[in-house]
Protein backbone atom coordinates (compact mmCIF):
# COMPACT_ATOMS: atom_id res chain seq x y z
CA UNK A 1 0.00 0.00 0.00
CA UNK A 2 1.36 3.42 -0.95
CA UNK A 3 1.92 6.17 1.61
CA UNK A 4 -0.79 8.30 -0.01
CA UNK A 5 -3.31 5.49 0.18
CA UNK A 6 -2.43 4.82 3.82
CA UNK A 7 -2.98 8.48 4.70
CA UNK A 8 -6.30 8.50 2.85
CA UNK A 9 -7.54 5.51 4.85
CA UNK A 10 -6.08 6.56 8.21
CA UNK A 11 -6.57 10.21 9.18
CA UNK A 12 -3.82 11.88 11.14
CA UNK A 13 -4.11 11.20 14.85
CA UNK A 14 -5.97 13.89 16.71
CA UNK A 15 -8.00 15.05 13.73
CA UNK A 16 -11.58 14.36 12.68
CA UNK A 17 -13.14 14.44 9.24
CA UNK A 18 -14.00 18.04 8.40
CA UNK A 19 -17.40 17.06 7.05
CA UNK A 20 -18.49 15.92 10.51
CA UNK A 21 -18.47 19.52 11.70
CA UNK A 22 -19.54 21.16 8.47
CA UNK A 23 -21.75 24.20 9.15
CA UNK A 24 -25.11 23.71 7.47
CA UNK A 25 -28.15 25.95 7.64
CA UNK A 26 -30.06 23.30 9.58
CA UNK A 27 -27.36 23.24 12.24
CA UNK A 28 -27.31 27.03 12.39
CA UNK A 29 -31.09 27.04 12.95
CA UNK A 30 -30.68 24.42 15.69
CA UNK A 31 -28.01 26.55 17.34
CA UNK A 32 -30.19 29.65 17.19
CA UNK A 33 -33.15 27.70 18.60
CA UNK A 34 -31.06 26.54 21.56
CA UNK A 35 -29.96 30.10 22.27
CA UNK A 36 -33.50 31.42 21.82
CA UNK A 37 -35.24 28.98 24.16
CA UNK A 38 -32.63 29.13 26.91
CA UNK A 39 -32.87 32.90 27.40
CA UNK A 40 -35.18 33.94 30.24
CA UNK A 41 -36.65 36.85 28.28
CA UNK A 42 -38.02 34.41 25.69
CA UNK A 43 -40.06 32.52 28.29
CA UNK A 44 -41.42 35.73 29.79
CA UNK A 45 -42.34 37.41 26.50
CA UNK A 46 -43.97 34.36 24.94
CA UNK A 47 -45.79 33.62 28.19
CA UNK A 48 -46.98 37.23 28.37
CA UNK A 49 -48.24 37.00 24.79
CA UNK A 50 -50.36 33.97 25.68
CA UNK A 51 -51.74 35.60 28.83
CA UNK A 52 -52.60 38.86 27.07
CA UNK A 53 -54.33 37.27 24.07
CA UNK A 54 -56.32 34.76 26.11
CA UNK A 55 -57.01 36.98 29.12
CA UNK A 56 -58.32 39.94 27.15
CA UNK A 57 -60.38 37.64 24.93
CA UNK A 58 -62.08 36.21 28.01
CA UNK A 59 -62.61 39.65 29.56
CA UNK A 60 -64.06 41.23 26.42
CA UNK A 61 -66.23 38.21 25.60
CA UNK A 62 -67.65 38.04 29.11
CA UNK A 63 -68.41 41.76 29.06
CA UNK A 64 -69.93 41.68 25.58
CA UNK A 65 -71.96 38.56 26.25
CA UNK A 66 -73.69 40.14 29.22
CA UNK A 67 -74.38 43.61 27.79
CA UNK A 68 -75.51 45.49 24.71
CA UNK A 69 -72.45 45.63 22.42
CA UNK A 70 -73.56 48.96 21.04
CA UNK A 71 -74.61 50.38 17.72
CA UNK A 72 -72.56 50.41 14.55
CA UNK A 73 -71.06 46.93 14.77
CA UNK A 74 -72.35 43.97 12.82
CA UNK A 75 -72.38 40.46 14.26
CA UNK A 76 -69.06 39.46 12.71
CA UNK A 77 -67.39 42.55 14.20
CA UNK A 78 -68.72 41.72 17.64
CA UNK A 79 -67.77 38.03 17.33
CA UNK A 80 -64.14 38.79 16.49
CA UNK A 81 -63.60 41.73 18.86
CA UNK A 82 -62.45 39.49 21.77
CA UNK A 83 -60.00 37.68 19.50
CA UNK A 84 -58.24 40.86 18.40
CA UNK A 85 -58.52 42.67 21.76
CA UNK A 86 -55.06 41.55 22.86
CA UNK A 87 -53.18 42.14 19.61
CA UNK A 88 -52.15 45.68 20.59
CA UNK A 89 -50.41 44.50 23.75
CA UNK A 90 -49.28 41.30 22.06
CA UNK A 91 -47.43 43.14 19.33
CA UNK A 92 -45.62 45.25 21.93
CA UNK A 93 -44.46 42.12 23.76
CA UNK A 94 -43.34 40.39 20.55
CA UNK A 95 -41.63 43.56 19.38
CA UNK A 96 -39.50 43.36 22.53
CA UNK A 97 -38.81 39.67 21.85
CA UNK A 98 -37.81 40.26 18.23
CA UNK A 99 -35.47 43.11 19.11
CA UNK A 100 -33.84 41.38 22.08
CA UNK A 101 -33.13 38.24 20.04
CA UNK A 102 -30.36 40.09 18.21
CA UNK A 103 -29.57 43.14 20.36
CA UNK A 104 -28.98 40.92 23.40
CA UNK A 105 -26.08 39.30 21.57
CA UNK A 106 -24.64 42.67 20.59
CA UNK A 107 -24.82 43.93 24.19
CA UNK A 108 -23.09 40.84 25.62
CA UNK A 109 -20.57 40.43 22.82
CA UNK A 110 -21.90 36.96 21.96
CA UNK A 111 -22.51 38.17 18.42
CA UNK A 112 -18.76 37.87 17.78
CA UNK A 113 -18.93 34.14 18.56
CA UNK A 114 -21.99 33.77 16.35
CA UNK A 115 -20.32 35.47 13.41
CA UNK A 116 -17.07 33.55 14.00
CA UNK A 117 -18.99 30.28 13.71
CA UNK A 118 -20.85 31.55 10.63
CA UNK A 119 -18.41 33.93 8.91
CA UNK A 120 -20.76 34.79 6.04
CA UNK A 121 -23.24 36.07 8.70
CA UNK A 122 -26.29 35.82 6.45
CA UNK A 123 -27.25 32.24 7.48
CA UNK A 124 -27.03 33.16 11.17
CA UNK A 125 -29.31 36.17 10.77
CA UNK A 126 -31.76 34.29 8.56
CA UNK A 127 -31.81 31.46 11.13
CA UNK A 128 -32.67 33.99 13.84
CA UNK A 129 -35.54 35.25 11.70
CA UNK A 130 -36.83 31.71 11.12
CA UNK A 131 -36.76 30.93 14.85
CA UNK A 132 -38.36 34.22 15.94
CA UNK A 133 -41.11 34.17 13.32
CA UNK A 134 -42.04 30.51 13.83
CA UNK A 135 -41.99 30.76 17.63
CA UNK A 136 -44.09 33.93 17.58
CA UNK A 137 -46.56 32.42 15.12
CA UNK A 138 -46.93 29.16 17.05
CA UNK A 139 -47.50 30.87 20.42
CA UNK A 140 -49.94 33.37 18.89
CA UNK A 141 -51.77 30.56 17.04
CA UNK A 142 -52.10 28.45 20.20
CA UNK A 143 -53.29 31.52 22.11
CA UNK A 144 -55.86 32.28 19.42
CA UNK A 145 -57.17 28.71 19.43
CA UNK A 146 -57.54 28.82 23.22
CA UNK A 147 -59.27 32.21 22.92
CA UNK A 148 -61.68 30.76 20.35
CA UNK A 149 -62.47 27.83 22.65
CA UNK A 150 -63.26 30.31 25.42
CA UNK A 151 -65.23 32.81 23.34
CA UNK A 152 -67.32 30.37 21.31
CA UNK A 153 -69.38 28.98 24.23
CA UNK A 154 -69.85 32.47 25.70
CA UNK A 155 -71.33 33.71 22.40
CA UNK A 156 -73.21 30.48 21.72
CA UNK A 157 -76.90 31.12 21.01
CA UNK A 158 -76.38 34.86 20.51
CA UNK A 159 -76.65 36.75 17.19
CA UNK A 160 -72.88 37.29 17.25
CA UNK A 161 -71.88 33.64 17.58
CA UNK A 162 -68.53 32.69 16.06
CA UNK A 163 -69.37 31.24 12.65
CA UNK A 164 -66.39 29.78 10.83
CA UNK A 165 -68.50 29.51 7.70
CA UNK A 166 -68.07 33.29 7.52
CA UNK A 167 -64.91 33.96 5.49
CA UNK A 168 -64.28 37.29 7.24
CA UNK A 169 -64.35 35.70 10.69
CA UNK A 170 -62.05 32.91 9.54
CA UNK A 171 -59.67 35.48 8.05
CA UNK A 172 -59.45 37.34 11.36
CA UNK A 173 -58.78 34.12 13.31
CA UNK A 174 -55.97 33.16 10.92
CA UNK A 175 -54.78 36.75 10.71
CA UNK A 176 -54.02 37.26 14.41
CA UNK A 177 -50.96 34.94 14.53
CA UNK A 178 -49.82 36.06 11.07
CA UNK A 179 -49.96 39.71 12.09
CA UNK A 180 -48.07 39.13 15.34
CA UNK A 181 -45.39 37.02 13.64
CA UNK A 182 -44.88 39.79 11.07
CA UNK A 183 -44.47 42.27 13.94
CA UNK A 184 -41.74 40.09 15.48
CA UNK A 185 -39.91 40.02 12.11
CA UNK A 186 -40.13 43.80 11.86
CA UNK A 187 -38.67 44.18 15.36
CA UNK A 188 -35.83 41.77 14.56
CA UNK A 189 -35.04 43.80 11.45
CA UNK A 190 -34.82 46.99 13.49
CA UNK A 191 -32.63 45.16 16.00
CA UNK A 192 -30.16 44.22 13.27
CA UNK A 193 -30.17 47.76 11.90
CA UNK A 194 -29.85 49.67 15.19
CA UNK A 195 -28.04 47.08 17.38
CA UNK A 196 -29.44 48.67 20.55
CA UNK A 197 -32.26 47.15 22.59
CA UNK A 198 -33.76 50.48 23.67
CA UNK A 199 -33.32 52.07 20.25
CA UNK A 200 -34.82 49.13 18.38
CA UNK A 201 -37.84 48.81 20.65
CA UNK A 202 -38.42 52.56 20.51
CA UNK A 203 -38.19 52.54 16.69
CA UNK A 204 -40.67 49.68 16.31
CA UNK A 205 -43.15 51.12 18.79
CA UNK A 206 -42.81 54.55 17.21
CA UNK A 207 -43.47 53.26 13.71
CA UNK A 208 -46.30 50.96 14.78
CA UNK A 209 -48.11 52.97 17.45
CA UNK A 210 -47.11 56.60 17.01
CA UNK A 211 -46.31 57.59 13.42
CA UNK A 212 -49.22 55.74 11.81
CA UNK A 213 -52.01 57.08 14.06
CA UNK A 214 -50.61 60.62 13.85
CA UNK A 215 -50.54 60.61 10.04
CA UNK A 216 -53.95 58.95 9.89
CA UNK A 217 -55.53 61.73 11.98
CA UNK A 218 -54.01 64.68 10.13
CA UNK A 219 -56.69 66.06 7.77
CA UNK A 220 -54.41 65.85 4.72
CA UNK A 221 -55.40 63.25 2.15
CA UNK A 222 -51.93 62.27 0.94
CA UNK A 223 -50.67 61.85 4.51
CA UNK A 224 -53.64 59.57 5.23
CA UNK A 225 -52.70 57.51 2.18
CA UNK A 226 -49.14 57.14 3.47
CA UNK A 227 -50.47 56.04 6.86
CA UNK A 228 -52.56 53.32 5.21
CA UNK A 229 -49.38 51.68 3.91
CA UNK A 230 -47.31 51.81 7.08
CA UNK A 231 -46.73 48.31 8.47
CA UNK A 232 -49.16 48.25 11.37
CA UNK A 233 -52.00 50.06 9.60
CA UNK A 234 -51.64 47.86 6.52
CA UNK A 235 -51.35 44.65 8.55
CA UNK A 236 -54.39 45.45 10.69
CA UNK A 237 -56.56 45.30 7.58
CA UNK A 238 -56.29 41.54 7.99
CA UNK A 239 -57.96 41.84 11.40
CA UNK A 240 -60.78 44.10 10.23
CA UNK A 241 -64.09 42.61 9.17
CA UNK A 242 -65.05 45.34 6.71
CA UNK A 243 -62.17 47.75 6.02
CA UNK A 244 -63.55 51.11 4.91
CA UNK A 245 -60.28 52.43 3.50
CA UNK A 246 -56.71 51.41 2.79
CA UNK A 247 -55.50 48.26 1.05
CA UNK A 248 -57.50 45.04 0.87
CA UNK A 249 -56.91 42.74 3.88
CA UNK A 250 -54.51 40.22 2.33
CA UNK A 251 -52.70 42.85 0.29
CA UNK A 252 -52.30 44.90 3.47
CA UNK A 253 -50.67 41.92 5.15
CA UNK A 254 -48.32 41.53 2.16
CA UNK A 255 -47.37 45.20 2.58
CA UNK A 256 -46.57 44.61 6.25
CA UNK A 257 -44.45 41.56 5.47
CA UNK A 258 -42.67 43.51 2.73
CA UNK A 259 -41.69 46.16 5.28
CA UNK A 260 -40.17 43.48 7.49
CA UNK A 261 -38.39 41.67 4.64
CA UNK A 262 -36.93 44.84 3.12
CA UNK A 263 -35.70 46.19 6.47
CA UNK A 264 -34.32 42.75 7.34
CA UNK A 265 -32.48 42.62 4.00
CA UNK A 266 -30.97 46.05 4.61
CA UNK A 267 -29.96 44.95 8.11
CA UNK A 268 -28.25 41.81 6.79
CA UNK A 269 -26.38 43.87 4.18
CA UNK A 270 -25.15 46.30 6.82
CA UNK A 271 -24.27 43.50 9.25
CA UNK A 272 -21.93 42.02 6.63
CA UNK A 273 -20.22 45.39 6.22
CA UNK A 274 -19.92 46.36 9.89
CA UNK A 275 -17.54 45.11 12.54
CA UNK A 276 -19.21 42.81 15.08
From TrEMBL:
Keyword field: Membrane, Transmembrane, Transmembrane helix
Signal peptide bounds: none
Keyword flag Glycoprotein: no
Regions crossing the membrane: 43-63, 83-104, 125-149, 169-194, 201-222, 250-271
Keyword Chaperone in annotation: no
Name this protein carries in UniProt: ABC transporter permease
Taxonomic source organism: Luteimicrobium album
Lineage of source species: Bacteria, Bacillati, Actinomycetota, Actinomycetes, Micrococcales
Amino acid sequence: MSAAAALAKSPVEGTLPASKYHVTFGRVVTSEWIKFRTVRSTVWTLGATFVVLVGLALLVAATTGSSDPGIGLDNADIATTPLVAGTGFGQLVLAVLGALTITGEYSTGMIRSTFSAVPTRTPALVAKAVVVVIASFVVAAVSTVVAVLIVKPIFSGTPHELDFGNDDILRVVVGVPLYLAATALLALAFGILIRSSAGSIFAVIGLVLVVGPILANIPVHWLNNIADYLPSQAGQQLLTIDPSQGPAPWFGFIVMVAWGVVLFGIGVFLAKKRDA
